[in-house]
């Protein structure tokens, strides 16, 4: 288990069994309290059982509850941002604070080697298609825009029928980037599976670390702050996805510095579009 314990729990909680999810939610809501609880107290607080708490700890890579609490204590001692954000004075402060936490947790979740691998695949691709529905479509458009700015033409496909046709005609050399915050959107999963079956390299961007989409992809990039049915398109979830997009494009220019020249060219050709 890495030092990003709370970020990992937040990313995985939505895909746990109900009993384990209650344990995770209880820990995330009051991590300081968890440190002072016995396994029995945490089981009671989460309306689960001692066996569920033990399974929860082992699923996270720990030998038991005490081992889990030790890791949690270390994180809370060195990472103040992992604590509850408290009671912001207004909605704007709440948005700012949750966005900061989301960005920092996403930084912890990002595997640098995966970003480098994804960038290599994108640079070598003959075709790059970016797919996302609704709020995830915003991220797809942003990725296509950022890559076009550095001379890597790509398409943002927000229509499921067009995306299925593109996936169905994919071939080796194609990179399909599929974005879904929940990782469970039927169209997103279908497109990932179809594109991969045709030989495309499929990159998934999601706020869930375990989901049908992630299982269907060659490479997964996980953002923090998973959404709920009532918070679809939430600002912290979107900004964490955009961080991954910027990290990808930054890595592409690092691997191929000539892309910076193309960035200047694209800036020049649109310069007359502003007053």
TrEMBL record:
Record GO biological process: carbohydrate derivative metabolic process
Keywords attached to this entry: DNA-binding, Transcription, Transcription regulation
In this chain the SIS domain maps to 118-258
Matching CDD domains, A to Z?
SIS_RpiR
Gene3D superfamilies, per database record: Glucose-6-phosphate isomerase like protein, domain 1, Winged helix-like DNA-binding domain superfamily/Winged helix DNA-binding domain
Which stretches make up the HTH rpiR-type domain? 3-79
Could you state a single Gene Ontology molecular function term? carbohydrate derivative binding
What name does this protein carry? MurR/RpiR family transcriptional regulator
């Amino acid at each position: 288990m890495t030092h990003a314990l709370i970020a990992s729990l937040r990313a995985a909680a939505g895909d746990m069994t109900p009993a384990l999810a209650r344990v995770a939610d209880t820990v995330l809501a009051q991590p300081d309290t968890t440190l002072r609880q016995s396994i029995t107290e945490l089981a009671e607080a989460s309306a689960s059982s001692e066996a569920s708490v033990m399974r929860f700890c082992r699923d996270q890579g720990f030998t038991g509850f005490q081992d889990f609490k030790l890791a949690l204590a270390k994180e809370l001692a060195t990472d103040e941002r992992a604590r509850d954000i408290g009671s912001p004075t207004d909605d704007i402060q709440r948005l700012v604070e949750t966005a900061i936490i989301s960005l920092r947790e996403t930084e912890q979740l990002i595997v640098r080697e995966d970003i480098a691998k994804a960038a290599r695949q994108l640079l070598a691709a003959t075709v790059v298609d970016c797919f996302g529905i609704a709020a995830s479509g915003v991220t797809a458009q942003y990725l296509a825009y950022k890559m076009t700015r550095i001379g890597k033409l790509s398409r943002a496909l927000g229509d499921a029928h067009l995306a299925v046709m593109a996936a169905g005609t994919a071939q080796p050399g194609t990179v399909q980037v599929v974005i879904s915050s929940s990782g469970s959107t039927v169209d997103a999963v279908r497109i990932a599976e179809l594109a991969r079956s045709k030989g495309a390299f499929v990159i998934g961007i999601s706020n869930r670390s375990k989901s049908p989409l992630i299982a269907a992809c060659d490479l997964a990039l996980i953002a923090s702050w998973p959404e709920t049915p009532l918070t679809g398109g939430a600002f912290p979830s979107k900004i964490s996805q955009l961080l991954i997009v910027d990290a990808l494009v930054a890595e592409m220019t690092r691997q191929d510095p000539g892309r910076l020249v193309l960035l200047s060219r694209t800036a020049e050709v649109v310069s007359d579009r502003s007053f």
